[in-house]
Design goal:
The protein has a five-stranded antiparallel β-sheet, with helices on one face. A hairpin with a 5-residue loop joins strand 6 (91-97) and strand 7 (103-105). The chain contains four helices and nine strands; from the N terminus they run ββββααβββααββ. The protein has 209 residues and is an alpha+beta fold. 31% of the residues lie in helices and 25% in strands.
Amino acid sequence: DTRATEGPIVADKNCEKIHYLSPTIYCCGAGIAADTENTTALISSQLKLHQLSTGKAPRVHTACTLLKQYLFQYQGHVSAALVLGGVDAKGAHLFTIAPHGSVDCLPYVTMGSGSLAAMAMFESGFQPDMDEEEAKAPVHEAICAGIFNDLGSGSNVDLCVIRSNGEVDFLRNYDRPNDVNVRYQRDYTYPRGTTPVIADKVEAIRALV
């Protein structure tokens, strides 16, 4: 989803929560927006240095290890709940990394305040060996379930498709289920005297200076 909140206030209706780590590794962040952005930016730079040092494309397990070790150092005080996904020489991988540094590796995962509603959709709609278009449908439904059943989630749906050949489709605003029609200013005209004038007082400003 794309909602960012400040307590009870919606601070950003179109926040970008899918973060770049490497050309075939991306990370979705829940929690404090500043923590997720800076954590993923830091690990992305470390992955680039690792690639320059080894001369090989970074693996998803390497990104997972760097993220979990960094978060574990701060014992949960860096509020970044992450969904890490990517493709490398070993195939496709999907992880969740909790703010305390614990890791899960599962066929489908959810994180954030809308994760329970999203997980319900995955558990009912996930099938193994789906093609790309079939896989987009349950992910879209899961995000929409979070948007409509959780106050901390909302606005639009972003998707990121990472293919085995290295191609990536970042589908920004893939769906906008909460679009509101623009309200145009109407031309209101009322005849003189519609609102009665109870009192009329004119005071010279020069006398007050």
